[in-house]
Write a structure and sequence with these properties.
- This protein has 210 residues and is an alpha/beta fold.
- It folds into two domains: 148 residues, Hexapeptide repeat proteins (UDP N-Acetylglucosamine Acyltransferase, domain 1, 3 Solenoid); 38 residues, no CATH class.
- The chain contains six helices and 14 strands.
- The relative contact order is 0.11.
């Protein structure tokens, strides 16, 4: 029996057989024109599944210009959220007051630059982390609980703090390069599960032979 059901809304079943309703596969509960979400990425929260998008990215309206892109196998803990570019106030002049949001014809500051927020594959975002507008988080990164991520995060970095800074790299540069080449997250799920022991134990040589 497969460990993963790509079509599940709630992918976790507890040892006593109870379905755990607080964790949802994002792709299966979000239909948002400005979100692109990979398979098997999950988010834990206490709201209704249909409210997941607004809990995860409360300022990402359907008519904004920026995207929120979340890769495959991303793990987002309870309390974490994305502040997207559409939440920004103007910062190039003498006032940050958002005058234009009070008139429909000027709402959205369409002449101001925006950046997409991008989360790579297999990223772990810890409890109560805040991801700021336009940030790019590299593949395999870990964001510590309570962090405020205000700048880009390298692949396979561990970051923490406010603002979040690199605490350490998970692997040397040459191993990171090999992992990016292997790109296990793009394998068929059957192949991933068949070689799960190598992923779990960090057996790079075995992964390269697959």
């Amino acid at each position: 029996m497969s460990l993963l059901n790509v079509n599940a809304t709630h992918p976790i079943t507890l040892p006593d057989g109870t379905l755990y309703h607080d964790t949802v596969y994002l792709k299966n509960v979000i239909s948002h024109p400005r979100m692109e979400i990979g398979e098997y990425s999950y988010f834990t929260h206490s709201g209704k599944p249909e409210n997941t998008a607004e809990i995860l990215a409360p300022y990402l309206g359907h008519s904004v210009r920026e995207l929120l892109v979340i890769g495959k196998f991303v793990q987002i803990a309870r309390g974490s959220y994305f502040i997207t570019s559409s939440a920004n106030h103007p910062m190039t002049g003498f006032s940050t007051y958002p005058f234009r949001i009070f008139r429909p014809e000027t709402f959205g500051y369409r002449d101001l630059p925006v950046k997409d927020t991008i989360v790579g594959h297999d990223v772990w975002i810890g409890h109560n982390a805040a991801i700021m507008p336009g940030v790019q988080i590299g593949v395999g990164a870990i964001v510590a609980a309570g962090s405020v991520v205000a700048r880009d995060v390298p692949a396979y970095a561990v970051v923490g703090g406010n603002p979040a800074t690199v605490i350490r790299m998970r692997y040397p540069a040459e191993i990171i390069s090999e992992l990016l080449d292997i790109a296990w997250w793009d394998w068929p799920v059957e192949k991933i599960e068949a070689n799960l022991i190598f992923l779990e134990t960090g057996d790079l040589a075995a992964l390269k032979r697959v």
